[in-house]
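User: Um, what's this?
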Amino acid sequence: MHTREEQMKAFGRLLDVLDQLREKCPWDKKQTNESLRPNTIEETFELCDALSRNDQHEVMKELGDVLMHVCFYAKIGSEKEQFDIADVLNHQADKLIFRHPHIYHPSQVGAPEPKPLPYGEDNSEREFANAKTSEQVLQNWEQIKLKEKDGNKTVLSGVPAALPTLIKAYRIQDKARNVGFDWQKREDVWDKVREELAELEAELAKEDKETSTDELGDFLFSVINAARLYHLNPDNALERTNRKFISRFNYIEEHSIRAGKPLTEMTLEEMDALWNEAKKAEKDIQE
């Protein structure tokens, strides 16, 4: 691994390259926050894909793409004399110190004295300084954020509106939990899941699309809630199922190509049999 000096040199090199591109490259010169935004979204999803596949080489590459976008936005900010990359980094470091009083509180043995922060009325946060577990840290996190001058005004205002809906539901529930709004016993959530499923089935029987849509949302929200309570990430779980389905369906399609028989001419029974073959092959590999 590289030394801190080598890491800082590499970061400076990236900034130098970006400065040159911004000055000399026709494409880079014309970019704005608005034009970069779609690319940033794409790069973020490519990073998430590499992370889900646990492909460390691709993770490294995609992190570079995302980091380049961070530096690019900071470069544009500096050109407008609004902020630069140092402001971005310092603000982030200050925020982390402010939100970790159990580490940076002066009462903690060996902890450095925190500097006054630009957005916190009281950076000592004495009531949060004794967090010992990750659960306590998470609970404190949301309450500390509300104390920041430019922080969230409400607990749920910190959930980005543009998040994918499944992840947004999880984050909404998680933030509510951090201020004490949660099930006392996780087992109780299953009554809610069954209740929402029954209400969905009742509305589907009436063939009322609008109400059925509402009830489907309530049911999915309750399932996500159950996953959260059992410390399962529903987005990761659904992505695993997506990959399994793609792999098994591709197995069926490849078989149909080898047999010279289009999928549209195969019976459901034939496709089910191939699906089960694919499942068995997966289990054999795992064993």
